[in-house]
Amino acid sequence: MKKLLIAFAMVGFLAACGGNKKGENTENSADTSASVNTDSANTDNKTDETTSTNTADAPLSKDLVGKAKEYGSEEEVTAETDKSKIIRYRSKNYAKEFPKALFEAKNLQVLVLQSLSSSELPNEIKNFKNLTCIVLDGAKIEKLPEGIGELKNLKTISLTSCRKLDIQQVLNVLKNCPQLENLSLSYIPFETMPATIGELKNLKHLRIKNNNFKTLPDEFYTLSNLEYLSISSKKDTPYNYEDIFKKLKQLPALTKLFIPFAGLKALPDVMKEYPALNKVVWKESDWKNAQEQAEQWSAKFPNFTVSINTSSTPLYYMY
Fold it and tell me: Rounded to whole angstroms, how far apart are CA atoms 186 and 163?
């Protein structure tokens, strides 16, 4: 049986993982589509080697995860498959339901089920004790299984375009994940950000684009480790940027703000008071000369640079 063997070249860690180079843009392409992007340079690299010899109670290093075999269909995870070597699973096509053949893959660390048709995930997902990254962009799920709260190694979860989700229930589950650093809640039509967001104390990277809320609760501004924020509203339902930008200065670690196509006419002077900010990614569709605009705004705010580079890297890599 033919197996899909893909080795992904490691990319520089993103701002939310604390390892990206200054000035590198890490916005998730899934914020503009429900599918997960894969860099073409990565998909061209293939190998027959398996670097993993780790057991289910010894998570692989990031380097080894990056070189591990990847399985992409339930047919590949056969009875003959050595389940201990299944480190990554990314569905080849849009999955209709959770692949039950994975349940024995105790060393699974990266799970990507884009546009999952099922309305729920099995609670048995809690048995993947080494799981560090879950990408469910475009999934039809209505809630997260409570078992995800038992994943003590989970660092990244992307829920972009999971439009049926109950955000309060989601945050009630995720607040139990002590290592959670990277979260995408973009393109979900929730109207109020729950105060529970403030309980995700280790959060470093957050994406909340194109939602329906107006402003953020005071608890949001207690996220002392938040380094990267992507926040941009729909044109017809704008966020209360005046209130949000005024309060963002309370975030001591915020170094990068991603706000392209937010319908803004100007950056507020209060941004000069942000204690750690060094880069703002901003671009509007009506700019005739975007580069010139960026240079003008960078000159006005000497404490950070304004970039119009909106290239992206998927959350898939943020394990």
Answer: 9
Helix or strand run (H / E) with residue 51: none
Does CATH number 3.40.50.2300 belong to domain 15-317? Answer: no
| The pLDDT of residue 313 | 62
Q: Which residues pair with 281 in a beta bridge?
A: 258, 307
Q: How far apart are the C-alpha atoms of 252 and 250, rounded to whole Å?
A: 6
Residue whose entry in the numeric block shows the structure tokens 């979260």: 183
Note the pLDDT of residue 274. 98
pLDDT, position 310:
77
312 strand-pairing partners: 27
Please, what sign has the CA dihedral across residues 24, 254, 34, 308?
negative
What backbone phi and psi angles, to 5 degrees, belong to 297?
-75, -35
Q: Which two tokens stand for residue 38?
A: 């894969």
Q: Catalogue the E-assigned strands of the chain.
A: 70-71, 88-90, 110-112, 133-135, 156-158, 182-184, 205-209, 228-232, 256-258, 279-281, 305-307
Please say whether the dihedral angle defined by the alpha carbons of residues 196, 198, 203 and 209, taken in this order, is positive or negative.
positive
Q: What is the pLDDT of residue 312?
A: 62
Whole-structure pTM value: 0.80
Residue type for position 317: Y
In the block, tokens 């979900």 appear at 188
Mean pLDDT by 10 residues, the chain (319 residues): 36 34 40 32 29 36 65 87 91 87 92 93 96 95 97 96 97 98 96 98 96 97 97 91 98 96 95 98 93 96 93 57
CA distance 316 to 37: 8
Locate the domains of the chain by residue range. Answer: 15-317
Going by their DSSP bridges, the two strands 205-209 and 182-184 should be labelled as parallel
